[in-house]
Amino acid sequence: MIGVNIYLALIAIATFLSMYRVFRGPTTVDRLVAVDIMTTITAGLMVLFALYYKRMIFLDVALVYAVLAFGGVIAFARYLEGGL
Amino acid sequence: MNALAALGEILVFIGTFFYFLSALGLIRMPDVYNRMQTSTKSATLGSLGVMIGVGIWALGEDFGSVAWLTKTIVISVFLLLTNPISAHTLIRAAYKSGIPLWEGSVMDKYREHIEAKAKEAETVGAPESETPEEGGEE
């Protein structure tokens, strides 16, 4: 548990850089790409929280979050393609 | 016991560093195709590092058990399978909704593929369109 602040700081920097692309992105797909990266980073953050708080239930939360984010991205892509 | 925790911590550091690199590629690359390329690859590798690192790190702690490593491997394999699928689907939607390529791009294989397929459909579809007309004449 020595360098956990460093990992959280790196994840925070990555999330803020993605949020810049979400707010600034010229097209819709740019924003959607940034949200996709942010959901991947959030799944990793939940796994880190499971270790930090010593609760294994957060791993299940991370798995369900990854599944739902995948479904959401697929649905948005189908909508943009005009098939939904 | 302590060596496992150290190994897991190194893996977690590598993973978070790749998260940072993926976000950096997200704001540095010129168009949406390059952004998707760099960010998805390094975010997937970062997830693998963080999750398997947490599993190995929990083995070295006193509260940890093998169930931690099993669950993190399940999550990382799921992400490894579904991240390329979502990236592929998103970028195909971007191409079909007409977002232009960067002006420095030199190759567009997907348009060549679509044009070749359209030409093939024309040559194959011509005799097919004749046969119903003949049938209609009869």
UniProtKB/TrEMBL annotation, chain A:
Membrane topology type, per the record?
A: Multi-pass membrane protein
Ranges that cross the membrane: 6-23, 32-51, 57-80
**InterPro entries according to UniProt:** MrpF/PhaF-like
Please give the name of this protein.
Cation:proton antiporter
Q: Which Pfam families match?
A: MrpF_PhaF (PF04066)
| Compartmental location | Cell membrane
What's one GO MF term for it?
A: sodium:proton antiporter activity
Q: Which UniProt keywords apply?
A: Cell membrane, Membrane, Transmembrane, Transmembrane helix, Transport
Q: Is Membrane among the key words of this record?
A: yes
Does the keyword Metal-binding feature in the UniProt annotation? no
**Domain of life per record:** Archaea
Supply the source organism for this entry: Thermococcus profundus
Q: Name one GO cellular component term.
A: plasma membrane
UniProtKB/TrEMBL annotation, chain B:
What Pfam families does this protein map onto? PhaG_MnhG_YufB (PF03334)
Provide this UniProt record's keywords sorted from A to Z: Membrane, Transmembrane, Transmembrane helix
Listed transmembrane segments: 6-27, 39-59, 65-82
Superkingdom classification of source: Archaea
Q: Name one GO molecular function term.
A: sodium:proton antiporter activity
Sequence segments annotated as region (Disordered)? 118-138
Q: What InterPro entries does the record point to? A: PhaG_MnhG_YufB
- NCBIfam families per record: CPA3_mnhG_phaG, PRK12674.1-2
Query: What name does UniProt use for this protein?
Result: Na+/H+ antiporter subunit G
